[in-house]
């Protein structure tokens, strides 16, 4: 069959993100004998025209649409992406079969399939499910009997089966160079799955709680390909937690050191699983920045959010970064269950104490079905039973809701290192566009200590 792969993601703040999930489908589909073409809407000025033109020119037997996120996960100022997906399906309607998948779709597959009007949906990992669905369509079989396949008008589906072996993304159909040029890095994944219990997180729902590790030689080979074939010199590891399991992280870093890979990189790490030995290995392997998913500086809030670490873990991991001279950022989520004025100020105080290069802050926490936060939101009357979560709804603690944005704005503007995208404090889309004009490699927040930043007030 002729298959057109469409990446629906058009979000470019803070970076355009390479469609690694869609690239993971290329190898299995090609191995099944399908003829492939790809359309990446991230850089298209007129997405509907681009889709119509691609369908007319390629005349695919099926269009596979990858939905990375449902919205920009930002309050206030949230933007849903579902209208764009509906437009894609509408353009393809009556011209070819439409199949939708991706991490965003997998959060609410039945509801999203009904909302956008596609013919089929593929839940969770599609490397095995999608080729089976296409074979079923060719043979006229019953797609409802395939695990992970969602059909219109059906309230349920057979749960998907997790992949036993994780493959390597095939990026040949996509413009890797442009992502590196405009985003400053290439993304790479070493594992899937998350065993932790953050109340808002969807990783365990999408990838399972059992952590599946890629063979280290395959990851090293993928990096070599990125360097040799695409000129990549900066990587971002998209693992939910790079440094867990810590033994695997250290073994991988040792392999990078031996391979003498000419790249720098950064990753998202957990404050509880970083040691001097591991951080030294990371730096020797090319790491030049780390991002901590700290969420809060209040012990009460860390417990409320289901974090696996304490405020002392944040202190110690920050101390190690200072000791070794590595740039680091803490990501903070304000407004979760139990948040008060006091806990907000505790977080500001802890960040003042540990002194990161940057603090990246979000206000409000997006509520997704199947998470513990959904149950808390129902209990606290933030949402009601039967409320649709297709459009973005956020948990904001009733005790702080009316003053959260004002308080965060007042405190963040006093500090040079705080970035609050939702309130446009020290960041804006125009600023990000301007920064991308320079050959910046790695996270843009690293520039904060080098640039004389303008103080931006909320719009």
Overall shape: it is globular
Mean pLDDT: 94
Please tell me the total number of domains. Answer: 2
Q: CATH fold name of the largest domain, please?
A: pyruvate-formate lyase- activating enzyme
Notes on the protein architecture:
- This protein has 459 residues and is an alpha/beta fold.
- The chain folds into two domains: 2-150, 3-Layer(aba) Sandwich (Rossmann fold), CATH 3.40.50.2300; 176-449, tm_1862 like domain (pyruvate-formate lyase- activating enzyme, Alpha-Beta Horseshoe).
- The protein has 17 helices and 17 strands.
- The protein has helices spanning 20-31, 47-58, 82-92, 103-107, 109-116, 129-139, 176-183, 203-207, 216-230, 246-259, 276-284, 299-304, 311-324, 341-354, 372-379, 404-412, 429-435, and strands at 2-7, 35-40, 62-66, 97-101, 120-122, 149-150, 186-188, 191-192, 212-213, 234-237, 264-269, 287-295, 327-334, 358-363, 365-366, 394-395, 418-419.
- The strands form four sheets. Strands 7-10-11-12-13-14-17 form a seven-stranded parallel sheet. A six-stranded mixed sheet has the order 2-1-3-4-5-6, sandwiched between helices.
- It is globular, with a radius of gyration of 22 Å.
- Residues 452-459 have low confidence and may be disordered.
